[in-house]
Write a structure and sequence with these properties.
mainly alpha; elongated
């Protein structure tokens, strides 16, 4: 049963990656057409989405980090399909996915501040940090997944120690 669930979940992750690519393409098309406020990557509106190409690049970098994390999630689900849910490499994939979640939020929220501080882009206006509750939840979930991965590694180590004793 775990194989079936992991296979379905892996296909859903693949569909999410395809949808992310499609939204980036639509956003680029909107910017090319001179549109502002195109909605970009993510759920909440941010100042980066009204910044034309600089905003598109910020959202695209955040999306690329998230897609890299989704690739790690696909590898994790492949281990589940192989019925190896608690191996060390499974924990590594979970840890990398958690890291990608946190980094994508940090990129999306801090890169516009950094660029406007440097004066590299007038499109973002004066430096200001915008955080949403959803950002905090994503960081919290990423941190919890990181902790679970650490517990998985420790469990693997204790299991190996226990096998040597017995």
């Amino acid at each position: 049963m775990m194989r079936l669930h992991a296979a379905i979940a892996r296909r859903l992750v693949l569909a999410t990656m395809a949808a992310t690519g499609a939204t980036r393409a639509v956003a680029a098309w909107a910017v090319l057409g001179g549109a502002t406020g195109f909605g970009g990557f993510g759920i909440d509106a941010s100042s980066a989405r009204n910044a034309g190409w600089p905003g598109w690049w910020v959202d695209t970098v955040a999306a690329a980090v998230l897609v890299a994390g989704l690739l790690q999630l696909m590898r994790l689900l492949r281990r589940y399909e192989q019925e190896r849910p608690f191996s060390a490499d499974t924990a590594l994939h979970l840890r990398n996915f958690a890291l990608a979640l946190v980094v994508s939020v940090l990129v999306q929220r801090l890169l516009p501040v950094f660029l406007s501080t440097l004066g590299a882009s007038a499109a973002f206006g004066p430096p200001h940090l915008t955080l949403f509750t959803s950002d905090l939840w994503i960081v919290l979930i990423g941190g919890l997944l990181w902790l679970i991965a650490h517990v998985m590694v420790e469990a693997e180590r204790l299991s190996a120690d226990n096998e040597q004793i017995v």
